[in-house]
Amino acid sequence: MRVAFASEPAYPDRPNEDFIGATADAIVLLDGASIPPGITSTCSHSVRWYSHTLGSTLLAEMTQSAGPLPELLAQGIKHVTSLHDFTCDLTHGGSPSATVIMLRQTADHLDWLVLGDSTLILDTGTPEPTVIYDDRLEQVAAPHRTRLDSLPGGTPEHAEARREYVEALGQYRNRDGGFWVASTDPLAADQALTGTTPAEQVRAAALLTDGAADTVSRYRLTTWRQLLDVLAQDGPTALIRRVREAERSDPHGERWPRSKTHDDATAVNVMVHE
Ligand SMILES: [Zn+2]
Hints:
Layout: E1 2-8, E2 18-22, E3 26-32, H1 47-64, H2 69-84, E4 98-105, E5 109-115, E6 119-123, E7 130-133, H3 136-141, H4 146-150, H5 156-170, E8 193-198, E9 204-208, H6 210-217, H7 224-233, H8 236-248, E10 265-271
Antiparallel strand pairs: 1-10, 2-3, 3-4, 4-5, 5-8, 6-7, 6-9, 9-10
Zinc ion binds at residues 43-45, 84, 88, 95.
């Protein structure tokens, strides 16, 4: 595989909570769930620590084991939990969490895993590419968004509504009937969307955190097919530039109501066949 990626924090002076790592045949992309001010955590570690520690653990595992991806993810979550369960109280769900995409090329297949609301796109040469996206968070979040979406972004009222929104979502995290992300429970790995596709059927793939997928999912600036073309022709940095331009044109979320004006954004372009 030929892999190109770009990753940018929401603001230049803020830590990037996305993690991206790749070898020639393995890619790992995580999006750490940011914790708004006012929410207290019983874990002393940052979201960035979590996404980068789990991400680098998963990439190391993928280079050493050909085991099933959900198994590697469960092991990785267990390992990272063991790094802080003796210093932090991880029993009350207040610890950091992240979405996970894993993509691996074997001799003749692509294995993939998607946990949480990041997006994997497989270009199989058909007019419409295959879009793999877990909408469980979106489903449970929708009824809780009404107040948040009615307030102008950048105001104290919006910040307060966002804190309430994130707190409300906490009760659905890693529960049946809710949504699943990597945090401290290895069983979350069983909830990931997974699949294996013959490599010869896949021309290219794209991996996107929601900050980059918003180009299509939220702002509707392009189609998934056009997004793949931008990635292939202009590269991942150009895609993120377009996202930022759209966000700057709507700084208070009037056209596109959203939790944050900008979000960490990571885009990965994978050429499986040249
Ligand atoms: Zn901790």
